[in-house]
Amino acid sequence: MVKSADERLQLDDGSAIQQIATDQIKPNPYQPRKTFDDDKLDDLSRSIQQHGILQPIVLRTTITGYHIVVGERRFRAAKRAELTQVPAIVKSLSDEDMMELAIIENLQREDLNVIEEAESYRKLMDDLQLTQQQVAQRLSKSRPYIANMLRLLHLPSTVMRMIQQGELSGAHGRTLLALKSTAEITKLAKRAHREAWSVRYLEQYISDNKSPRENHKQQDTNTKPKFIKQQERQLKEQYGTNVAITTKKNKGQITFEFTSEAEFKRLVQQLNDKYKN
Description:
Elements lengths: L4 H4 L8 E5 L3 E2 L11 H14 L5 E6 L2 E6 L1 H9 L4 E7 L3 H15 L4 H15 L3 H7 L4 H9 L5 H8 L5 H7 L5 H13 L4 H10 L3 H11 L3 H14 L3 E6 L2 E6 L4 H16 L1
Parallel strand pairs: 2-4, 3-5
Antiparallel strand pairs: 1-5, 3-4, 6-7
Helix pairs in contact: 2-3, 4-5, 5-7, 6-7, 9-11
Pfam family, one: ParB_N
Family: Belongs to the ParB family.
GO molecular function: DNA binding
């Protein structure tokens, strides 16, 4: 089970609570949350004005001052309350620690939107050169869960914004990825939002409006042996993308689908890692 941010920071180094000037503190560059609810910040600010900051924020020393490791909401609310100092514990942490702790803190509060969550996983993978499996292990998630979240980053930017703003769900987004055209995805996403489609209705609409070629491919899939379908599912879960296995006489082909150069490089890296192991 993943430890809380506070548990991860309980290092026996005798750290004491200090009063640190707010103008010396900067946000965590690895903070996954891009948006903060103004109403909730105002509520927290009023509470801080009345009761003070009950739990110190955690900082890391930098050349120009301090970076927030845990407690950015408290810090932002404190500035709204016009505090010139905040109670803080200063820790010696690596960039890797900062990144993981920022993500863990936000995931535990469950207030990241799914796009921010997916971007957090991608940043961990890119900056720390981690595989999906390694990210899953570090954050106590399943690898298929990480893979499915990352797939949302293949959506057009317009649709990702719709999900961030709560106009569509992450499940809507994953369903729309069945379409190949960016224009199709965007058009149908706007219609699904405008007409308040459920995920199930969207799935049915896409299924009913497949091209003859796609329907033929679906029929081919339905006639595949059970063990082939099972292998396709396992590979899809393992590599986080659609996988097709075709066989003819004594020959066969395994096809991995990718929709961007970044995804192609990720697949190659995973395949190379698997070969090395």
